[in-house]
Design a protein that fits this description.
2 domains, binds iron/sulfur cluster, 471 residues, 16 strands, alpha+beta, Immunoglobulin-like, 4-stranded antiparallel β-sheet
Amino acid sequence: MNSQHEDVIAVDAIAPAEVGELDKQQRREKIYTRAMEGYFQRLRLYTGWPLLLGYFVLPWLMLRDRQAVLFDLSVRKFHVLNLTFWPQDLVLLAFILIIAAFALFAVTAVWGRLWCGYTCPQTVWTAIFMYIEQRFEGSRNQRIKLDQEPLSWRKLRKKTLKHCGWALVAALTGVTFIGYFVPIRQLLPELLSFSADPGALSFVLLFSVATYLNAGYLREKVCTDMCPYAKFQSVMFDKNTLVVTYNAERGEPRGSRKRFGTKDPHQGDCIDCELCVQVCPTGIDIRAGLQYECIGCALCIDACDSIMAKMGSPKGLVSYTSENALAGRQTRVLTPKTLGYVAALVVMTTLFSLSLFNRSSVELSVSRDRGQLFLPAPQGLIDNVYELHLTNRSDQIETYRIEVEGMAQVAILGGDTITVLAGDLLEFGIRLRADPKLLPLPGTPILFRAVSTSYAADTAEAESRFIRPTL
Ligand code: SF4
Ligand code: SF4
């Protein structure tokens, strides 16, 4: 997203003197990143755009007559395409979180902070906000100067436009996020006509403000000071992990030199132009070694590669490499650690798939009528009354046959079939009639079973008792 051409360093601007005193003074207080183009930035663009598009488009997709992805907290139902999840499916959510964690561990062990640099929402949204900043306030040096200028109409106009741009993106992000929980086709018109539910409106505002502050102001501080993953991800690193590294052996001793000029054999390849520092969104100097603030965005690789190309030196002074590769050893992807992560991933994914495909789409619970243990009925028979809670978790209207097991010659009064709407919970009473003389115990254990009439494998059971008077 950092694509402003005027901000990309020019061949003639590589001497250390060009860095400017402004940079050194300003770096610690506020980071003014220089836009950079290059191979890895194109890669980030290609990964960032599909994710952004997915985020903004997904809530607008419809499946039959409902939103395809909707976490409807009001009725405690989560719709993901043609699957509907209920609170009882919480174990599946736990599986998803564990699978995501192991996938992240495996990726981090091999490719370092790939998630942080390419796909983390904080990184992606910060890149959008930086792009807007550059559009309205100009290149890095222009922004530094603008901030130092006294207030003027020109400065006010540029700042206002930037903040309007940020606010627009933040608001769209907030509305979209809440649109995953409240049907977005209903939410947006309500918001525009000021008739939205106050609860939904508060959450839209909360999420919009959080986006505005995180991507506009906090930026790298979220990664360096707030994100817990940044703190413990180094535990997953080993000598084979690919990390953004400065090749000090090749680069040192650093110092300026003429372009394509004869190089002092004792001098390293780094010309100390500090472009790698100027492009770094977290404001660190990769030449100081691996630092936890480095999010692996590879901006410094593209920056240094552009300098090396201009100096006529081979690229890769700053590169993705492993400690083993730097030491001339082979980088191994399949280490015991990565194999362990992959094995855990396979086990968890298998368990998740089994749980998902074996889960029943019907649920049944039974409670006895607490008013009376039994009711007398004609011809010496007795009745027991129960309340059944039958949930149809499928996506279509379903008819169930109610069966009772555990008693001979039991009659279900009022019919033994019941129809439940798609995704609905039906509570209904049922009366069983039996001959007490045929029951061996005062409290006979019985089993209620609801069997789908369209798909017999969809059944649910619930236990209860049939009470008779003492004979
Ligand atoms: S050091 Fe390089 S890879 Fe790390 S955050 Fe800075 S620019 Fe990105
Ligand atoms: S590592 Fe590359 S970009 Fe950084 S100062 Fe040295 S030559 Fe410049």
